[in-house]
Structures are given as C-alpha cells and as structure tokens.
Amino acid sequence: MQTDVQKPEKHTWFEDLQGYLFGTSMCAFALVMLRSLGLITGQMAGLAVLISYVTDLPFGWVFFAVNLPFYWFGYKRMGKVFVGKTFVNVALISVLSEWFPSMVSFEGVTPWFGAVMVGFMTGAGLMAIFRHGGSLGGLGILALYLQDATGFKAGYVQLAFDACLFAIAFFVMPLPLVLYSLLGAVVVNLVIAINHRRDRYIAM
C-alpha cells in the first residue's frame, strides 16, 4: 500500500534568522578561542586569521575583505538569494568575532583540548548555517564554480588551498601550534562529513 509523503515545509524567515544567529555565534565564539590559543584553521577564515597574526589587523575586517571577491562567483552559480544569505553570515561573523572578546577570555586552556572544542563548535555552527541554505562564502563558492567550469572536484580545490595555507603557517608559527591547528581542522571536517548528509537529513 502506497502512502502519500508530505513534502516538508521550508524554513520561515524567522527560523533562518535564528539559524544564522546560532551558527555565526558558535563560529565566532570558536574563533575567539582559536585566536586566544594562537591557532589557525582552514579555508578563508584560516587565511584571515593568519593575515591578522602577521599584520595585527583586526580579524573581522580581514575576514570580511577576503570574502568580497567571491560573491560574484556565488551569484553566477547559486543566485542572489544565496549570495545575500552568505553576505549576512560573513558580516555577522566579522562583527561578532570582534565583539565577543570584550565579554569573554580564555586562560589556562590546554591547546589540544582547545583545538578539539574549536573544531566541535565550528562544525556545529557551520551545520546550522548550511541547514538554512547559507554559507560562509569564500573558497567554497570558488571551488564549486571551478568544478562546474572545469570538472576539477571542489573538494580537491579546498584541500589544495588548505595544504598551501598550513604550509605557509609552518614558516610563521611555532610547529606545535600548527599541529594543534591541524587537529582542530580535522575535527571540523569530520563533524561536517558525518552530519551534513543530504541522503539522511533534510536541509531546507
């Protein structure tokens, strides 16, 4: 006997808003801990952190700036709604990551434990953003655009970028901190790989 399957309702604007506030708050909080430990992460956030370490520029401004060139690719591939959501999330991360340090500080956190917790929090934040149709822009957009244009897998583009980023970090950061940073990056990717499954979970 065949039964009718009701199509799930899409998220309302309020549900999207709370998802973005939760996701960006988790990611921003994780970035505050990350920077207090002197660690980095992957993708454009990692690039922005590394630039902020070298130049002493505020992370939030650098993160916002390095994402600007990628919105055109997002518009071409995914449309203005996706780009608008991504812009909002990037702006929230930029603001919150500069605001949160005035309300919290991390002292006596063991680096390996901090790296793992940063990975968990970042993964949870990204999952919330993804589930509500947004992203944190940057390299992910370019990787998907290049995949469509050339057939080169988006995951390989991101992997190559992170490999270059961490290779540079070896020359400007102490080796133990780079290794702890790699641990955190692995945790983030595991959280997303295990939980961001469209064949198991509905993302609206």
Automatic annotation (TrEMBL):
Membrane-protein topology: Multi-pass membrane protein
UniProt-listed Pfam families: YitT_membrane
This protein's record includes keyword Membrane: yes
Coiled coil: none
Transmembrane segments: 20-41, 47-70, 82-100, 112-130, 177-194
GO CC annotation, single: plasma membrane
Compartments reported by the entry: Cell membrane
Protein name as annotated: Membrane protein
Phylogenetic classification of the source organism: Bacteria, Pseudomonadati, Pseudomonadota, Alphaproteobacteria, Rhodobacterales
